[in-house]
Amino acid sequence: MCLAIPARITQIDAAGENALVAIGAVTKEISLALVNDAAVGDYVLVHVGYALNKLSEEEAEYTLRLIEEIGLFDEMQDTAILASEPPTGHQA
């Protein structure tokens, strides 16, 4: 199953190409290649190491609540969604 997860940007590299995001208790490095104008504090939808698009805080929190309610959040902590690395050439 493919799933993209909302995450909050906590840091962006100097080139603006990569970011650190918080997904629950996990911090992950992702590529911002597909998202324009991302800023620290923004929420983005993350899949396989890429931010796909920005989300409002309300959309992100609602989606995270739904994921938690159906019992997937803890399970996702160990999946490829959170464990995947940014694509080669997009590392900070």
What do these coordinates show?
This is Hydrogenase assembly chaperone HypC/HupF. InterPro entries: Hydgase_assmbl_chp_CS, Hydrogenase_HupF/HypC. It comes from Thiocystis violascens (strain ATCC 17096 / DSM 198 / 6111) (Chromatium violascens). With 92 residues, the protein is α+β, with helices and mostly antiparallel strands. The chain has one domain (5-83): SH3 type barrels (Roll). 23% of the residues lie in helices and 34% in strands. It has a 5-stranded antiparallel β-sheet with strand order 3-2-1-4-5. It is globular and about 40 Å long. The termini are far apart.
Write the topology of this structure.
Blueprint: E1 5-12, E2 18-23, E3 26-31, E4 43-47, E5 50-55, H1 57-69, H2 73-76, H3 80-83
Antiparallel strand pairs: 1-2, 1-4, 2-3, 4-5
Family: Belongs to the HupF/HypC family.
InterPro entries: Hydgase_assmbl_chp_CS, Hydrogenase_HupF/HypC
Pfam families: HupF_HypC (PF01455)
* Overall geometry: globular
Q: Summarize the amount of helix as a percent range.
A: 10-25%
- Please give the oligomerization state of what you see: single chain
Helix-strand topology string? EEEEEHHH
Structural class: alpha+beta
Largest beta sheet: strand ordering: 3-2-1-4-5
Q: Could you name the ranges where pLDDT drops below 50 across 5 or more consecutive residues? A: none
Q: Give the DSSP E fraction (strand runs of 2 or more residues).
A: 25-35%
- CATH fold type: SH3 type barrels
CATH architecture: Roll
Q: How many domain units?
A: 1
N-to-C span: 28 Å
Number of helices: 3
Q: How many strand units?
A: 5
What's the story with the biggest beta sheet?
A: 5 strands, antiparallel
- CATH C-level name: Mainly Beta
